[in-house]
Design goal:
354 residues; 81% helix; mainly alpha
């Protein structure tokens, strides 16, 4: 995680100078950002699996992902201001330096596993060890390393359930993040600074609802609801809800109404973090980081297809509505697939039978 943040912060800081040098230098800097950012969520998932017992993981993921969404809010709102004050260099310099400041806190406050943390209290360590049923196996995997069984991981349908869910999540996430300012500018004729504010509101909603979803998910499990059913409930809300809301978005005539539909879609989308995202730790705790990396690979490809495809789709049809409806349908189909094949139980990856 530390190396990832350091690398993407440096690449972000250097992006304007790379752009002044050549197109290839710019592409290299942006590729470096992507490579470095690719480690963040797998590292987070792996550490949550080691540090938090099952009854607390949903809240941990909810809080972590709330920060993820608040970053979108800050970026969308500050970037136009920083650009107006400091030119194109402004956002890249400020965000790059902020990453290095965060890195100092991270290095002084964290460790990969609880028993290696220099400041952890004896009572907290004992609590984690008592509650964390899979900690021994997870830590053993971390220490011994080895080549993960990719073939066996891919031979199980629960693996494909989280891969497809992550792919759809990335498709929707990056289409909304990349295209919504342009959508508000094109469809409702608001300027790009106003469009950034309209686009930032939904991410604020996502941060808030994500924490509530985490609290509710843990509460369901503590009260006896099976982990499998809890994950499917969260995933259904997180995909069916946005699917319906995006259909509503296509009917909006005013930017405020459109922002409300978009806020509902993105807010409900946060429930999926307590479905497929935390599910990675449950079906394969010893391979949660590896499995998350596999999911991110598929999700990145889906995000590329969705983001680039949206441009071609809009150019071909001359309207955003058709692509938004396509995204809504894909949300509904992905929710159905997850509910059929997902499980909250640990999956046996020692055999290759489906």
């Amino acid at each position: 995680m530390a190396w990832g943040v350091a690398l993407w912060s440096l690449a972000t800081f250097l992006t304007p100078w790379a752009a002044d040098t050549s197109l290839w230098a710019l592409l290299a800097a942006r590729a470096m950002v992507g490579v470095a950012e690719g480690v963040a969520l797998p590292c987070m998932n792996n550490m949550v699996a080691r540090w938090f017992p099952p009854t607390e993981r949903s809240r941990a993921v909810g809080i972590a992902m709330a920060g993820f969404q608040l970053g979108n809010v800050v970026g969308l709102m500050l970037s136009p201001i920083l650009m107006s004050q400091g030119g194109i260099y402004g956002p890249f310099v400020i965000f790059g330096l902020s990453g290095f400041l965060w890195l100092l806190v991270w290095l002084s406050a964290t460790s990969s596993v609880p028993d290696r943390h220099p400041q952890i209290t004896k009572s907290e360590l004992e609590y984690i060890k008592q509650k964390q049923q899979t900690s021994t196996r997870v830590n053993k995997q971390y220490i011994t390393g080895g080549i993960p069984p990719f073939g066996r991981l891919l031979s199980k349908m629960p693996t494909w359930a989280v891969i497809i869910a992550n792919s759809m999540h990335s498709w929707g996430f990056f289409v909304i993040l990349s295209w919504m300012p342009i959508y508000f500018n094109t469809v409702y004729h608001v300027n790009l600074k106003q469009a950034a504010w309209f686009s930032a509101v939904p991410w604020s909603m996502m941060a808030f609802t994500g924490y509530l979803a985490g609290f509710w998910s843990d509460l369901l499990i503590r009260r006896g609801t099976s982990i499998t059913l809890t994950r499917k409930i969260m995933q259904s809300i997180g995909f069916i809800g946005p699917g319906i809301a995006l259909i509503g978005l296509t009917t909006a005539k005013q930017p405020l109404v459109a922002s409300a539909w978009l806020s509902l879609a993105v807010g409900l989308k946060s429930f999926s973090h307590l479905g497929f995202l935390i599910n990675l730790q449950e079906i394969a705790p010893e391979y949660s980081g590896v499995l998350h990396g596999m999911c991110l690979t598929a999700g990145t490809l889906a995000a590329i297809v969705g983001t680039v495809g949206a441009g071609f789709f809009v150019e071909l049809l001359g309207s955003f509505q058709g692509f938004i409806l396509l995204t809504a349908i894909l949300y509904l189909l992905s929710a159905l697939f997850y509910n059929i094949y997902a499980t909250g139980e640990r999956v046996d990856f020692d055999t290759t039978a489906a």
